[in-house]
Here is the input.
Amino acid sequence: MAHQDDEPGDRNPEEEFREMLRELLSGAGGIDASQLAGAAGLPNDPASIAALFGQLQQAMNRGGDGIDWSVALRQGEQRAASGQRQIDDDDRARLEQALQVASLWLDEAVDFSALPETPELLTRRAWVTATMPVWTQLAEPVALSISDALTRVMTEQAPEELRTMIQGASRMMRGIGGALFAMQLGQVVGQLATEVVSGGDIGIPLQTDGRAALLPQNVAEFGDGLDIPHDQVELYLAVRETAHARLFRHARWLRLHLITAITAFARGIDIDTDRLEQLAEGFDPSNTEELRDAVVNGALIRPKSEAQQAALGRLETMLALVEGWVDAVTADATGRLPRSDAIAESIRRRRASGGPAESAFATLVGLELRPRRLREATAMWRAVTEAVGIEGRDALWAHPDLLPTAADLDDPSGLVARLTGTRTAESDADDEFDQALEQLLRGETPAAPGEDGEEPTG
Here is the structure.
């Protein structure tokens, strides 16, 4: 800490920059506190503004290069708790019974054993607490990229006399940028907590313990929008969630495989420094809305590279395989429900129009995950079930190399032929073509039909 009689030149750049920030945030620098709260995605009220300044103060004082994600957890829990109602005894008894029935029905539709853990019923706030570790894991690569790029651009745009100061305080700058991003993440996850109906609603298992979970308040609100008896909606959603949890518990490699693919994609994201420079040149401290919109809407992320497009294609295929399998087995398991088809169609429309998964991933990691190939994946799993049965279908989840490919989604007949060992005229023709091509490459002339050394029969 600098002494009062220290000259400005005696203080290190980080101390000078910290003092300058305190002056700015006090209002002397022209920053409107309510506008700054808006940039962080916070409501414009005294409590939110006080929380923002408290978090920025902590970011200024803490050491280390990482992001303090506890900020996101607190923000998410607070937003989710607004408008939340507790789970009453009637809801608990009804949904626990639905989950028990769902497990029995799935025993007939899948080859995976029942879950050893009892499914959970979560409030919105509890869902935020349970899922935030995975959200922060997915968001961190982008958060660090934006913070680093912002620090670099601010250093380049700053007057010459301030550059040394900003460079020396780069770690603190990164912490402040990370704190603002974490606050926005908390707001997004808190909003998601009002939308998701189950643990697997996003498409990947967000809970680290892998347990099945339903959110009774959101299940009820989803059912309110349908002209379908609530007990049927609850049972259908219980089957879907249980199927999703069983799949990821059986294929233990699958969760890590998906999350690794998403984080690898996020690490390849390139920040548009030209756009950042434009924002920095015209930045108005009293109006931070443009900066906030750029971060939230993904305007700072460059278009995907070819490598990212390829990675995205593989990820979309994997997610389609998961969701398609869940759709197919849920339809089989809920055949007793009179309105199961109508509920399934409502869920498909909800996903296709941009449900919670799309908005969350697009905001946090620049990754839109609309289930473009969901119908093809569901149809493929049905074809496989008809060809080799439940046991043969579910055996494909034993290892990633066994899973169907994007080409199998286009044409399941080749996959069915491989699984059943049957030959088709098309596959025979392909073999003949490959054999003829090999002969040409060896310098041989392929034999014409009937010229294989035997007299043609006729």
Remarks:
- Confidence is low (pLDDT under 50) at residues 1-9, 27-31, 449-458.
- Residues 79-176+192-365 form one domain.
- The two ends are 102 Å apart (CA to CA).
- The chain has two domains: 79-176+192-365, 374-441.
